[in-house]
Amino acid sequence: MIKAKQLRTYVNRAYKLMKQVYIEQGYFASGSIGMEEIYSIHADKEKAEIIVDELLDSGLVQIRKECHALAFELVAEERLHLIREHNLIEEWQHASLFAVMEDHGEVFSVLREVKERNKKLHTIAS
After folding, report:
1. What domains are defined for the chain?
2. The pTM is what?
3. String of DSSP letters for 34-93
4. pLDDT in tens, 70-79
5. In angstroms, rounded to a whole number, what is the distance separating the alpha carbons of residues 14 and 7?
6. In the Cβ-directed half-sphere of 62, how many Cα atoms lie within 13 Å?
7. At what angle do helices 4-25 and 45-58 cross, to 10 degrees?
């Protein structure tokens, strides 16, 4: 069993890894990571699964939809925050013009997802 303080440390490491992957290559597969990367944080399968559960429970990470293998990504609001904070539109243009294209690409997808989620929240609140 992982002690609470150790668990927080592992969860923080995994979250920082996800943010770093997103900043470096979020234009590709939304910067998602698989269990292999989680195992790099903790090799024990049961403990790695606990770390994933904690990440999902935090609301900052979600399971990547429409993916052939189990993968995790930051929620759209977190991705949008990183896009703005690190000026990723400009950074990603050099790596992949597709990432910043209107109607397609990661930036458009993030904006659309945030807008849809806000619309749902507004509907629920009404």
Report:
1. 4-125 (1.10.10)
2. 0.86
3. EHHHHHHH---HHHHHHHHHHHHHHTSEEEPTT-SS-EEEE-HHHHHHHHHHTTHHHHHH
4. 999 999 999 9
5. 11
6. 13
7. 70
Coil, helix or strand at residue 102: coil
Three-state secondary-structure class, residue 10? helix
* Short-list 113, 78, 105, 75, CA closest to 89: 105
Q: Classify residue 75 by burial, with Cβ atoms within 10 Å: 0-12, 13-18, 19+.
A: middle
Contacts of 106 (CB under 8 A, 6+ apart): 26, 27, 30, 79, 92, 99, 100
Nearest to 88 by CA among 17, 15, 24: 24
9-44 pLDDT tens trace: 999 999 999 999 999 988 888 889 999 999 999 999
